[in-house]
Every structure is written in C-alpha cells, then in structure tokens.
Design brief:
Elements: E1 5-10, E2 13-18, H1 30-45, E3 51-56, E4 60-62, H2 67-72, H3 81-90, H4 94-100, E5 106-110, E6 113-115, H5 117-123, E7 127-131, E8 135-137, H6 151-159, H7 161-170, E9 173-175, H8 176-181, E10 187-189, H9 194-206, H10 210-222, H11 228-243, H12 246-263
Parallel strand pairs: 2-3, 3-5, 4-6, 5-7, 6-8, 7-10
Antiparallel strand pairs: 1-2, 8-9
Helix pairs in contact: 1-4, 5-6, 6-7, 10-11
C-alpha cells in the first residue's frame, strides 16, 4: 500500500501531506499510524527542523474514520468489544501520541473538511490556519460513537469547555468563519493562499533558534498539567541551557547594537 503521508522538507520546515484524496484522507489503518510515527520520529531526530505543516491532498483535510470499514466491521471496527478496544489502542491512538510529542511547533493547514478524527487531528497541532472552504465537526455522536482518538482531551484545550461540549454533543459542523470566532483557527485565507500563509508563519517561527523553540514547546506542553513550582524548576533548568548557546550570545549582541544604533 502506498504511503499515506508524504514528507517534504524545505530548509527548516517540513510539510506532511495526507495523500489519499480518493478516500478524503480518511483515517484508521495501522499503516497510517506507522506513517505518522515514522514521520514524527524523523522530525525529532533532525535538529535542523524548526517547524512542521500538516495538510491534506485534494478537497478534504481528513474526513475522519472510514465509515465503510465501520459498516463492514473491518479494520478498527473488527471483532468483539475487547478486540475493538485493542484495535484503537494499537491503531489510531498511536497518532495522537506521536504527533503530540513532536518537539517543534506544528501548524495545521486545513484545506477542506476536517471531520471526526480529522477534526481531532487538526486539534493535535499547535496552530491552525484554514482556507475559506474548511469546515470542522466533532461528529462522532452522529454515528453513535465517541471520540476514540483523544478528541475529548484536545478539543476543550483549543476552544474551551463550553464550545467543545456543544460540538461534541450536537455533532454539528462549523464553517471557517465560526472556527475563527471560537479560536479554533488563528486565520482564514483564500484556498489558493493557504500553503503560502502556513509557510509564512512557519518561516517566522523558523527564524528563531532551534533549541529555544523546542524547549519553549516542551514548557508549554508541560504547563497543561504541571504544578507552577514544577514548571518554574523546569524553566530555570532550560534557561540555564539557553544562556550557554552561541545563538543567545549573538542575539543579545545584535539587540544591543540595535539599541545603541537607535540612540545614535
């Protein structure tokens, strides 16, 4: 089977593209989880990478789970209750675990429908930019199932409890404008400008030192569950490392030169 993710690197920015447009980039196969795991491990091992863009080929970002597999009781839907539980744990649930632990900032460039697991995948990214054709739905309840891929953890952290409950309990679809209003995405752009906008943001991120980006992301992740005292201890340790880098020294000298030049 062909790879689900294509991996392209230009300078310090990696673009991951879900490349099964005939199935609207539906999720659920073990090979897809393996693709995500491999890509995430490759990114973390490459200190030259400073930002990642995730998008979808074709008209959809990702239509979520494979409803035909649900109908036919195959794939993740195969077997009895204990089998299905294990199918999720060893299948699609590997994606949030891998993607959440990418060391560098991630941007979802949402080109079209992000439905169900596709919506949750966009929420796994640190930032989201949408085309005007993007739409989002936490639609599991409409199929009589629940967010099995971690959506109940990710969605409230992006849009807040009230909006997350509304989306999860109704299964309703929201358009790009509403996604912008509720803070799900930071920008909506014309479809033909989506990747340019994502790359422009990635470029502004990648202009900064790699070590500072990776440590800052780690602190932001840990802040979601750590005690203040614990985070302060981590921050002190990371800061000690950051102060002893050439990039820090060069940035301080450049800032001083700029300040002194403005005074002149």
């Amino acid at each position: 089977m062909a790879d689900f993710l294509t991996y392209e690197q230009l300078g310090a920015v990696v673009t991951l593209t879900m490349s099964n447009p005939d199935k609207r980039n539906a999720l659920g196969g073990d090979y897809q989880a393996s693709d995500f795991e491999d890509a995430c491990a490759r990114i973390n091992a490459d200190n030259d990478v400073k930002a990642v863009i995730l998008t979808g080929a074709g008209k959809a970002f990702s239509a979520g789970g494979d409803i035909f597999a649900m109908r036919d009781k195959t794939g993740a839907s195969a077997g009895g209750p204990y089998d299905i539980r294990n199918n999720y744990r060893t299948g699609i649930q590997r994606i949030p675990l891998a993607f959440y632990h990418i060391d560098v900032p991630t941007i979802a460039a949402v080109n079209g429908a992000a439905i169900g697991a596709g919506c949750d995948l966009a929420m796994m990214c640190d930032m989201r930019i949408a085309s005007q054709y993007a739409k989002f739905a936490e639609s599991f309840v409409k199929l009589g199932i629940i967010p099995g891929d971690g959506g109940a953890w990710f969605l409230p952290r992006v849009v807040g409890q009230s909006k997350a409950y509304e989306m999860a309990f109704t299964g309703d679809t929201i358009d790009a404008a509403e996604a912008l209003d509720c803070g799900m995405v930071s920008k909506v752009v014309p479809a033909d400008q989506l990747l340019d906008a994502a790359n422009e943001l990635a470029g502004r991120i990648a202009a900064n030192p790699a070590h500072a980006l990776r440590m800052t992301k780690k602190l932001l992740r840990e802040s979601q569950h750590a005690r203040l005292e614990t985070l302060l201890e981590m921050s002190a340790a990371y800061q000690a490392l950051a102060h002893h880098t050439d990039e820090h020294d060069e940035a301080v000298r450049a800032m001083i030169d700029k300040v002194q030049g403005n005074k002149g």
